[in-house]
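Hi team,

Filling in the usual template for the complex we talked about on Friday. All components are listed, including any nucleic acid strands or ligand strings, so the model treats them as one assembly.

SUBMITTER: L.P.
PURPOSE: interface mapping
COMPONENTS: two
RESIDUES: 228
SEQUENCES:
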Amino acid sequence: QQQVKQSPQSLIVQKGGISIINCAYENTAFDYFPWYQQFPGKGPALLIAIRPDVSEKKEGRFTISFNKSAKQFSLHIMDSQPGDSATYFCAASSGDTGRRALTFGSGTRLQVQP
Amino acid sequence: DTGVSQDPRHKITKRGQNVTFRCDPISEHNRLYWYRQTLGQGPEFLTYFQNEAQLEKSRLLSDRFSAERPKGSFSTLEIQRTEQGDSAMYLCASSSDRRDTEAFFGQGTRLTVV
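RESULT (copied from the run log):
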């Protein structure tokens, strides 16, 4: 059972445009929601993360919007650049057991066209 | 390099052979995770160590898989009697108790079973 659903599967955006990736979760025990960026042949790299006590977090061109009641969160990439072309994964973890294993979405392949 | 290090980067093996992968976490990190990532999918949790203790194993970790973390430093993941379905990227991640939500990933070991 997929606990974190991510969409779209792929996304093409023009340089300077806004990229938006959406995720929805089912497990209400999740209390930490990171986004990871992965380039081909590399491991995922932590990009930005949010906890459910805030509705938005911004770091540079990257913003997470969080809707706790809808159990949804999204990543917005402003002024998208060709260097942002990568696969993006949303994820979630729970502090219930203290182990913090991550549950990942299926990924969004972003292509930013020059 | 102070990041998470994995070795080898690539491994091609014949079906039925045993393989072993190594992960060296960030030196001050006591938490270590193994994930498996198949093509076009997000990473899936396999197992978790806190120091030398293996505290959680996913249902994905069949009897052919075994992981160790002697002395709470590096970790090894062994797959016995490999099958074609084991072909995937095996990722290691580490974090600390103090910042348990921030998991840093290695570049992974790409396993191909022929």
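MY TAKE: The first strand of chain A starts at residue 4 and ends at 7. Chain A has a mean pLDDT of 94.

Thanks, L.
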